[in-house]
Design brief:
single chain; about 220 residues; globular; 9 strands; alpha+beta; two-stranded antiparallel sheet
Amino acid sequence: MTPITHMDLTGFTEQEPGVWTDANGLVLSVHFFPLVPDLPAPLDSPEPLRYALARSVAGAGAGLIEAVVGRVDTLPALRQLVKVPRPNGQGQVILGSWTIPRAGSSTVVKAQAAEGGMTGLREAVILGRVGPEAYFTPHPYGPDVTGGLPHHVADHEQWDAEFPDHPLTRVREVLARITPTIGLHETFKTLPPFAPQAAAVPDPPARATGPRGWFRRK
């Protein structure tokens, strides 16, 4: 149960409540966390927010590709794209999400897709095209962000059209398609806005359920 009242699920098949997959194995899911959102800064302070997120993701052994503040329905929200190494060491998993924070809770829409078969093709092609000196660049959200998966130009959106089957392309495309179709329950929309300076930020639970009364997503 989440505050999401509707969302375009064309091309997806429900696997369990709140989890869907498409024909290519991309997983789409919705979540509600009844806790203060685990965001290090307000959405109206995008530079310190992105910097803190980039450092946190790198410290966890992954890489923040993008963090963009936008809107879902009428509410301010944060879109993130993160690359994570697969546990078996072969390729990466791309995680894309919208976090819609309120003062004491948040709703998350997440899409994820993993590399399969031949891995690293996109990276190898772009590396050969731009050369090693131009390939790896300092992280755009902070030059001192180190560790985790390195930042490089092959993750830029400009290459997506050349690699339509890459998980990064697929995650970007599905988030772009479904975001305008997401509707939120009016009760959630009237909750107090997110204000991290007003309270400590706890770690989010691994799995949580929303309070009774939310409309189930359609």
